[in-house]
Design brief:
By secondary structure, the chain is of the alpha+beta class. The chain has three domains: 71 residues; 52 residues, SH3 type barrels, CATH 2.30.30.60; 82 residues, Alpha-Beta Plaits. Helix content is 53%, strand content 17%. It has seven helices and ten strands. Strands 4-3-2-1-5 form a five-stranded antiparallel beta sheet. Strand 1 and strand 2 form a beta hairpin. It is rod-shaped and about 140 Å long.
């Protein structure tokens, strides 16, 4: 029965006639024409704004690159900052194009603001490192190749990146410090030079002038000791067992540890050759007899 009713029901379906189809096509064409008349000029202007934004972004990118190159920044960092600048400029022109098309930007910006706040909260550590990295790059409290002490760590700076700074430790290990741990902390920048601090003792009966002359002679002959700034050689204190002499010359950061050992050995050999006695700790003990 159902098989009889369904074909019978199809007899009552209305199929559009040829005239109705033509009317629908004409209506669609008219609607398209109206939309083109209404939004066509705005669309053309919006495309022109985007094109202008593209070329303005390229121009500002080149200008930014030339300015950053004068600061001595690395090529990768310059390229990154240039891309950020071009993206910001292009984003501004995109907003102008959307405004020209009549797009309501307030709800869109509100939504982006909420999303941005959530992202910033979730990535506050990363963003903190980024902000600190930019601060380090532009304020330049230290540069690659300098020896610094920061956050209970020290070493030679081998890399300054947006999120961290890499130090090379004298034991040939690497120290990676997040940039937010550097900005705002007390920083000791040794530069490219370091001052040695060698201590030596001589007996009280030693000719001090002869001992100081021997030290000056070996410092002047050592190839890794810098003569400018002038090495400091001072009688430091009168200790229990002898006279303490401080030897504080300068050398480069790379030669610091080797030179410190060389000077200590050279002083020992020079004093032995000249008959200058280096005292060892002594204690005088008196035994008092009982009556």
């Amino acid at each position: 029965m159902l098989g009889v009713l369904i074909p019978f029901g199809l007899l009552f379906c209305h199929f559009p006639t040829m005239d109705e189809q033509l009317q629908m096509l004409e209506h669609a064409q008219q609607t398209a024409i109206d939309l083109a008349i209404q939004f066509g000029p705005k669309l053309v202007v919006a495309l022109l704004i985007l094109a202008a934004g593209f070329y303005v972004g390229r121009w500002i990118g080149k200008l930014t690159y030339s300015m950053l190159a004068k600061l001595g920044l690395t090529e990768a960092l310059c390229q990154l900052l240039v891309r950020i600048m071009r993206t910001m400029v292009m984003g501004l022109f995109v907003i102008m194009a959307l405004q020209n098309l009549g797009v309501e930007l307030l709800p869109l910006l509100a939504g982006l603001g909420v999303a941005g706040a959530g992202i910033a909260l979730a990535m506050q550590g990363v963003l903190g490192n980024l902000a600190a990295g930019l601060t380090i790059i532009f304020t330049r409290p230290f540069q690659v190749g300098e020896y610094i002490s920061i956050a209970d760590e020290e070493g030679t700076v081998v890399g300054i990146h947006l999120f961290n700074t890499v130090l090379s430790h004298p034991d040939h290990s690497r120290i990676i410090i997040p940039n937010r741990k550097i900005v705002g902390e007390i920083l000791h920048n040794f530069g490219t030079l370091r001052q040695l601090d060698v201590m030596v003792g001589v007996a009280y009966d030693t000719d001090i002038k002869q001992a100081l002359a021997a030290i000056r002679e070996l410092l002047a002959a050592h190839p890794k000791i810098l003569q400018e700034p002038e090495p400091l050689i001072r009688v430091l204190s009168l200790a229990d067992s002898g006279v303490e002499i401080a030897i504080r010359p300068w050398t480069t950061v790379d030669n610091y540890y080797d030179t410190s050992s060389d000077i200590t050995q050279a002083v020992l050999e020079s004093f032995r050759a000249r008959g200058i006695s280096i005292p060892f700790p002594q204690r005088e003990v008196r035994l008092l007899g009982t009556s």
